[in-house]
Specification:
alpha/beta, 7-stranded mixed β-sheet, 6 helices
Length: 177
């Protein structure tokens, strides 16, 4: 199953790159997508990352899961990206997977996609998860939406996504490696 993770300037490097690293180790296809007009994206700790493609060249129909790393101002930058937000809404309507970690679940909350759903996020953005049932678990799946608390839960987040996309055995194998 193909996946994509979206990078905006100011994204949290551990949250984004842990998912990419672990997916590639597991053999799960993942594209890194820059939402800006440059393939080079600068993380919140001034680490420059080269994305695989630009959002302008990305085809949302080629993937089954959209992943949002947190970080500031990365989350704010992602939330202002209309084509990405349109795709998040469409994926939600279609029951396709959405995953967000740290502050990024606030994007889904702001769009009304978490109403009545259990969700986790970085504690300082809990008030932005409109209508969600807040969980303090490291990773929460409610239907097609997977959320996680932050940098310290990035490995758990990537393992849960691996379990969803592959199976529990593959996630356990990846964790053991």
């Amino acid at each position: 199953m193909n996946t994509a993770i979206f990078f905006a300037d100011g994204f949290e490097e551990i949250e984004g790159l842990t998912v990419v690293d672990m997916f590639r180790r597991a053999g799960i296809p993942i594209q890194t997508v820059s939402i800006s007009d440059s393939l080079t994206v600068t993380g919140s700790h001034d680490i420059k990352v080269q994305a695989d493609c630009l959002l302008a060249d990305f085809d949302f129909n080629t993937v089954e899961m959209l992943i949002l790393p947190g970080g500031m101002p990365g989350t704010t930058n992602l939330s202002k990206c209309e084509p990405l937000c349109d795709a998040l809404m469409q994926f939600s309507r279609q029951g396709r997977y959405l995953a967000a970690i740290c502050a990024a679940p606030s994007i889904l909350g702001g769009m009304g996609l978490l109403k009545g759903k259990r969700a986790a996020c970085y504690p300082s953005v809990e008030d932005k998860l409109s209508g969600a049932v807040i969980s303090r678990l490291p990773v929460v799946q409610d239907g097609n939406i997977i959320t996680s608390r932050g940098m310290g839960t990035a490995i758990d987040f990537a393992l849960k996504l691996t379990e969803i996309l592959f199976d529990r055995e593959k996630a356990e194998e990846l964790a053991a490696s």
